[in-house]
Amino acid sequence: MKERIKSWVLALLVLGSLVESYYLIYRLPGSDSAVFSENLYVKTDNMGPEEKVENLLFPDKMIIHLGNDKHTLFYPSSTFYNLILTRLKGRSFESFQRRSVQSFNWDKIRSENPGIELSFRSGIPVALLQRVMQLSPDSLFAGESVDRIWIYSGKNDSKAHAVFFSTRGDIVYEAAKADLTVQDVQQHVDFGKSWTPYATSNGSYYVPESNLSLMAAELPSKLYTVEQIQSSLFFDSGSTRYIREKDGSEIYTDSKRSLQVDQEHNWMSYSDPTALPAGESTNARDVLEAVDFVNQHGGWNGTYKLEAAEESNQDRIVSFQQYYGSYPYGAYPVLDQPKLHYGLIDLRLQQGTVTTYERSLMYSEDDKGSKKIVELPGGDTLRRQLAGISQSSAIRDLYPVYLPVVKGDKLELTPVWKVDFSNGSSLTLK
């Protein structure tokens, strides 16, 4: 009898628990439901895989100084670039000393001392550089951004020098403790002895003494649909309103956020002016926030590199540049153009929160394309071209890029030289 009573009591307790759970989940009639029905839930339709920030942080080029005023360059994804960068990531740098950039004779170091120069064209915050290199910065250095790392050894030096250049231009930080020997530096430099020689007059840019072999490609191209874009940006894309502007652009809005689609240039711009500030904002934190945002709202359709994290009218603009190419020929940036915005992802942040997100609607299918090896001019041919365009403004940098051209349903990527001038302008040379 007692056992039967216990069973009934236990059954009542279980039934009461189920009823209570029902009301907790679905609530009483007239109140907001805590569960969304299947027809309201929209699964995010990614345009590419997520990416770790560490994979977006790498030098745009590696300059090898051989001594006797001889040099060569390695580019991302090329054989010795990968080898040297992997080795440097395993070394530690500590006890940074702040010095004036003028306290070094860089022309002499460049021409006489074997060394490795890593270039980060627009700079990288030290707080992010720590994610890919073993640095132990003090609070002052940790707040800096650097655009170059120069590791070299002198003739009578017993240890290697490692100097980090602040993007401000007047300050460098030298690591008093660097886990590199003179022999390590020489071994890395020796990789460049049989590579294409380069010449420079002042270290601003380098000209190859012979033509460069690069890979050209013709790839099938497609466009992400508006539905894909909406589902990656709006929780309920079915609640958005459609507006067509006079210039032909399309706007989709849920009254808080808006998505503008430019079908002519295959470009999208998403804006969320109501986004709540995250609080404290720094270069490094904003880059991390930007990477997380892209991971959650679209993903990465290819190889990208952090290009810039710059302040603009109290906002911060974070840009990622797409690179194309692979081992052993190297990877190079895809040129963004006014009439074909391709290969660039831009985000604007206010107080640590993304308020604007822009990217191309176009993507290519690399595994289905055709490729061939072409040559970019070097030596005297290239020098004559540079001499003819440098009369009005000094050349600041010279590097290979891919020029994208749409032909029907194909995307052609053609290697060209990009010339950056000191006045901020640029042009391309074939």
Quick overview of this protein structure:
The protein has 430 residues and is of the alpha+beta class. Helix content is 22%, strand content 40%. The chain has helices spanning 2-26, 79-89, 106-112, 126-129, 139-142, 182-190, 226-233, 283-296, 379-389, and strands at 61-67, 70-74, 92-100, 115-125, 134-135, 145-152, 161-166, 171-178, 198-199, 207-208, 212-223, 241-244, 250-253, 258-262, 267-271, 303-312, 315-326, 330-333, 344-350, 353-360, 362-364, 370-376, 395-407, 410-421, 426-429.
Tags for this model:
22% helix, nine-stranded antiparallel β-sheet, 25 strands, TATA-Binding Protein, alpha+beta, YycH, eight-stranded mixed β-sheet, 430 residues, Regulatory protein YycH domain-containing protein, 3 domains, YycH/YycI_2
Description of the structure:
This is Regulatory protein YycH domain-containing protein. It comes from Paenibacillus durus (Paenibacillus azotofixans). Residues 3-422 form the Regulatory protein YycH domain. It holds the Pfam family YycH. This protein has 430 residues and is of the alpha+beta class. It has three domains: 53-207, no CATH class; 213-217 and 368-429, no CATH class; 223-362, 2-Layer Sandwich (TATA-Binding Protein). 22% of the residues lie in helices and 40% in strands. The chain is built from nine helices and 25 strands. The protein has helices at residues 2-26, 79-89, 106-112, 126-129, 139-142, 182-190, 226-233, 283-296, 379-389; strands at 61-67, 70-74, 92-100, 115-125, 134-135, 145-152, 161-166, 171-178, 198-199, 207-208, 212-223, 241-244, 250-253, 258-262, 267-271, 303-312, 315-326, 330-333, 344-350, 353-360, 362-364, 370-376, 395-407, 410-421, 426-429. The strands form four sheets. Strands 12, 13, 14, 15, 16, 17, 18, 19 and 20 form a nine-stranded antiparallel sheet that branches. The relative contact order is 0.13. Mean pLDDT is 87; it is low at 8-44.
